[in-house]
Amino acid sequence: MKKTIRDVQLQGKTVFLRVDFNVPLDGERITDDTRIVKALPTIEMLREQGARIVLASHLGRPKGEVDPRYSLKPVAQHLSQLLGVPVPLSEELVGPAVAARIQALRPGELLMLENVRFHPGETKNDPELARTWASYVDLFVNDAFGSAHRAHASTVGVGTFVPAVAGLLMARELEVLGGVLKNPKRPLVAIIGGAKIKDKIGVLENLLGLVDRLLIGGGMANTFLLAQGYDLGASLVEEDQVDTARRLMQEADARGVRVYLPQDVVVAERFSADAAHRTVPVGHIPSGWMALDIGPQTVEIFKAALQDAAMVVWNGPLGAFELAPFAAGTMAIAQALSTSKGETIVGGGDSVAAIEAANVAESISHISTGGGATLEFLEGKTLPGVAILQDLE
Question: Binding site for ATP, residues?
Answer without folding.
Answer: 200, 322, 348-351
